[in-house]
Specification:
Blueprint lengths: L2 E8 L6 E9 L3 E11 L2 E5 L2 E3 L5 E3 L6 H42 L7
Length: 114
């Protein structure tokens, strides 16, 4: 089984939840609502779950063995880091462009009199 698509939706919040993930396998089976969570031991991927009547959370879908869970987590976190680093570059470019535009706007203006 091959992961053929990973879609990540970042969450704008201060909490532990960083993003929701949708995985597609072999181009024909999709799993929604995996979560990227920042925990004490590092960032990890939580499987989609629901709350039971007793208040416990049970996975709706999950890998049967730890090897496949590790493959899923590695691929998702690689993609998350790639997106995170590319957004950082875009933000720096936008900030740099804003500085250039600010300088261009002040070049032709006369200095204030003291």
């Amino acid at each position: 089984m091959e992961i053929t698509d990973i879609r990540i939706r970042k969450v704008d919040s201060e909490g532990k939840l960083k993003a929701y993930v949708t995985l597609t396998f072999d181009g024909c089976f999709v799993v929604h609502n995996l979560k990227i969570i920042s925990g004490q031991a590092g960032t990890f991927v939580a499987m989609p779950s629901r709350k039971t009547k007793k208040g416990e959370y049970k996975d709706i879908a999950h890998p049967i063995n730890s090897d496949f869970r590790n493959i899923i987590q590695e691929r998702i976190l690689e993609e998350y880091e790639r997106l995170d680093s590319s957004e950082g570059i875009e933000n720096r470019e936008v900030e740099g462009q804003a500085e250039v535009e600010a300088e261009e706007n002040t070049e032709g203006e006369p200095e204030e009199k003291k």
